[in-house]
Each structure stands twice: as C-alpha cells, then as structure tokens.
Amino acid sequence: MKVKKRKRVLMFYNPHAGNGLFKNNLDFIIEKIQAKGLQVIPVRASRDKAIETVFSEIDPDEYRQIIVAGGDGTINICVDAMIRHDIDLPVAIFPAGTANDFAYYFELPHEIAPMIKIAMGNEFTYADVGVCNGRHFINVAAMGTLVDVSQKTDPNLKNTIGVLSYYLKGLSEVHNLKPLPITLITPEKTYEEDMYFMVVMNGKSAGGFKKISPDSEINDGKLDVILFREIPVVELLPLLVNVAQGNHPKHKNVLTFQTEKLRLESPVEISTDVDGEKGEKFPLEFAVLHNRLRIFTDPDNGKDDTDRQSGSSGH
Questions:
Q1: Which pLDDT value is given to residue 1?
Q2: Which of 186, 85, 91, 87 is nearest to 138 (CA)?
Q3: Single pTM value for the model
Q4: HSE of 267 in the Cβ direction (CA atoms, 13 Å)?
Q5: How far apart are CA 149 and CA 243, in angstroms?
Q6: Residue pLDDT, tens place only, 262-291
Q7: What does the pLDDT look like over 245-260, one tens digit per residue?
Q8: Could you tell me which CATH number the domain at 135-289 has?
Q9: Domain with CATH 2.60.200.40 in the chain
Q10: Is 301 in contact with 118 (CB distance < 8 Å)?
Q11: Angle 72-84/50-57 helices, nearest 10 degrees?
Q12: HSE on the CB side for 163, CA within 13 Å?
C-alpha cells in the first residue's frame, strides 16, 4: 500500500503579536515553504476561534506540521485546541510575541530565515503540557496580586516596548501588594501559606524573567511550583534581583517544589493567569501531560540529544 505524502502545512498566526516582524514577512515565508513543495493553509487568530472549526474538520494525515506564529498566548490557543481535538502533529514556533517565554526554552531564533530553516527540518524535542481545571497551558500558570499587572498592561505598550512594560506596570502596583492565604495540596505534602505571588511552571521563564524557574525541564513529567511568601516591601527589590539571577529558590521566603499533581484552595478570591491570558477560578486542579507535544528545534542548539527525535515529521 502506498503511503500518502503529507503535503500541507497549517499556519496559525496572530497578526497583532509583537512588532509585526512575522506579518511583514508573511509572503516571504509562504514563498519559502511552497518552494519545498508544500501547501500553506493560513488560519488567522481571531476572537471567533476559527482554529476550533479548522481542527474539527481537517484530516491530520494530510498535514506535515503546524506552524504557530505569535507569543505564548497564541501558542496556548493552538495547543489547547489541538489537544481537545486529538490532533497530534509536530509544531514549529515562530516567536512573534512580547516575551516568547515558551520559545526561549528551546532557544529558537528571532530572525525569519532560521525560523523557516528549523520549521522545514526534521528535528524535534518532546514537551510536556500542563493542565489547569481542564484547560491546557504550555509555559506557566500564575496566581496573586501581580497577575493583574499583565492583564492591566496596555497591549499597544506591550508591543512597543516589550517586556519593559510589565516591569514598569509592576512597580506602579507595589503599593497594592497584600498577602493572600492559600493551601497547596500535593500527593506528597500539604502546605499552608500566605503568599504575594506564585507560579506553576512548565518552562523556565515567565514575563521576561529568564530564570524564574531555573531548574525546570519541559519534558520531565513534572510541574515546578514557586511561591513567593509575604515579605517586607523593603526586601522586594533585593528579591527581584535574586529572581533575575535565578538565585531565588534558595531564598527563605520562597517555597519551591516539583509535583505531578496539585490542588490550590483559598478562602479569598485570587487572580489567575494562564500563559499570559486570564485564567481559571479557584479551586485549581493541576496535572501534566507528559511528552504530549513535539516542537521543531535546531539540532545545533546544544539541547540534550536524549530529548530529541528526528525524521518523524516528514511523511
């Protein structure tokens, strides 16, 4: 029986993400992909969730891969829809957002030509996917007062000055910090804490902080929990310096641990965020889907070869 060659590439892109690099090069990208004998099926990210309709109707056997162009929020929308529709295709990421934390983990380039080269290659790395109350996330779920910073930051400001916009907004919100009571329940242990902020990480970076979870491995089948306890305001700046350097896991007011399952409870309302977008309401139930994704990567970026497979994207 002759095996059908997969000739199509689904391209899911956010035209409003970042500084417009992807949108300004869209025709060039399509030209280069078509030169490989592939047909590009573009899907524009929009509020009507067109990606849902596409995934409910396509035949995955006709597709070589999915290309996602945008920031973490765009990747999140695509991956969440993929999993709910049981789509299992390798994903190529074109980092085009503000922080691009998920892409940062894989050391993906920010120039168009090498993005295309990686996407048209045959090397990929496995990645876990987090689950929060049934909703999937690729990089981080965050809780606490500082979550409002991301949700209150002007999108135009984010696109213009990037990650700096988060920091400027964060400084303006320091006076609103207040400790929030929270219970963390894992199969191994239960914690009772008063926290300012916490993250449940799949990747290493969030909001532009490159080392917020320095020991995370994106395919170890575990989530990394980092909770910042109540702390005097005068000690916040030194702690932020520690976070920037990746030294905060040793700090006395920082709780860190790994787990496969987690439940969060609180008697008060706590703001949440999933991959940069408004998150779920408490209580929160977390789990992890081990090695659920295949992400195209550069074979020369120095990642551990045991995480990488080759050749399975070209059919």
A1: 38
A2: 91
A3: 0.84
A4: 5
A5: 17
A6: 999 999 999 898 888 888 999 999 999 999
A7: 667 767 778 899 999 9
A8: 2.60.200.40
A9: 135-289
A10: no
A11: 40
A12: 11
Cβ-in-10-Å burial (0-12, 13-18, 19+) of 267 comes to exposed
CA distance 203 to 179: 26
- Of residues 311, 279, 246, 302, the one with CA closest to residue 107: 302
Q: Specify the pairing of strand 63-70 against strand 91-95.
A: parallel
Q: Is 84 helix (H, G, I), strand (E, B) or coil?
A: helix
Tell me where in the chain the CATH 3.40.50.10330 domain(s) lie. 8-130+290-310
**pLDDT one-digit tens code per residue, 44-103:** 988 778 899 999 999 999 999 999 999 898 999 999 999 999 999 999 999 988 778 899
8-130+290-310 belongs to which CATH class? alpha beta
C-beta separation of 91 from 65 below 8 A:
yes
Q: Which two tokens stand for residue 228?
A: 């910042």
Tokens representing residue 291 in the block:
């090695």
